């Protein structure tokens, strides 16, 4: 009887140790982690999945806030993401994708990098890509070809747009409302995306 008690005690002890040490060392993809440098809750980008507008908007909604906010709310973010002509791009990993006119690039920059330095990385995660997530012309042409269609079409093809854009001034600032620059054109395309007309 005594050896039976020891057996059950040994089994109970083994099970309790196993239950306490159940952590597999991996954080769920949709959870945040605390950045030790900033103390800020930084979301993990959904690693390995095809980038989506939903994941992108959730990510930038947590890291790009206050003066660094990219959108008024999640609905506006989703409207821009689904209208701007961005490709999904490569799955988001800890190291990127760090460039390209894609949802993946924007999700990457809007994740941990923006949690560490929002002033630098939130513009990269934004709708213009800040000449990091796509060139100025890739962003302008991708958006104008996606938004201005039918009677509102500005160019016959992406190639025509890229050729015309190559001659434009790119020295403007994101958010410029006037001037003969790509940045001004991107601002007005953003207004077109947000308008109900």
Please identify the structural class as seen in this structure: mainly alpha
Q: What is the CA–CA distance across the termini?
A: 83 Å
Largest sheet: 2 strands, antiparallel
Number of helices: 9
Strand order of the largest sheet: 1-2
User: What does the average pLDDT come to?
Assistant: 82
The count of DSSP E runs of length 2 or more, i.e. the number of strands, is 2
Order of helices and strands: HEEHHHHHHHH
Form type:
globular
User: How many domain regions?
Assistant: 2
* β-strand amount: under 5%
Oligomer: single chain
Low-confidence runs = 1-42
Percent of residues in helices comes to 40-55%
Question: How is this structure best described in words?
Answer:
This protein has 197 residues and is mainly α. The chain has two domains: 32-131, no CATH class; 136-194, no CATH class. The protein contains nine helices and two strands; from the N terminus they run H-E-E-H-H-H-H-H-H-H-H. The chain has helices at 2-20, 53-63, 74-83, 103-110, 112-116, 118-125, 136-147, 158-165, 182-194, and strands at 32-34, 41-43. It has a two-stranded antiparallel sheet with strand order 1-2. The radius of gyration is 23 Å and the shape is globular. It starts with a helix and ends with a helix.
């Amino acid at each position: 009887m005594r050896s039976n008690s020891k057996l059950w005690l040994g089994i109970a002890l083994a099970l309790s140790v196993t239950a306490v040490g159940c952590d597999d060392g991996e954080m769920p993809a949709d959870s945040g982690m605390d950045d030790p440098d900033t103390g800020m809750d930084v979301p993990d980008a959904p690693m390995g999945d095809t980038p989506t507008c939903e994941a992108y908007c959730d990510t930038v909604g947590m890291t790009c806030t206050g003066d660094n906010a990219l959108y008024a709310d999640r609905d506006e973010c989703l409207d821009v993401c689904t209208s701007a002509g961005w490709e999904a791009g490569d799955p988001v990993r800890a190291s990127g994708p760090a460039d390209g006119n894609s949802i993946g690039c924007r999700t990457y920059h809007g994740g941990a990098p923006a949690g560490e330095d929002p002033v630098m990385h939130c513009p990269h995660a934004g709708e213009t890509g800040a000449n990091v997530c796509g060139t100025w012309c890739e962003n302008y042409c991708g958006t104008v070809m996606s938004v201005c269609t039918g009677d509102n079409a500005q160019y016959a093809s992406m190639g025509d747009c890229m050729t015309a854009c190559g001659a434009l001034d790119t020295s403007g600032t994101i958010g410029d409302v006037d001037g003969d620059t790509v940045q001004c054109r991107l601002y007005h395309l953003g207004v077109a995306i947000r308008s109900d007309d």
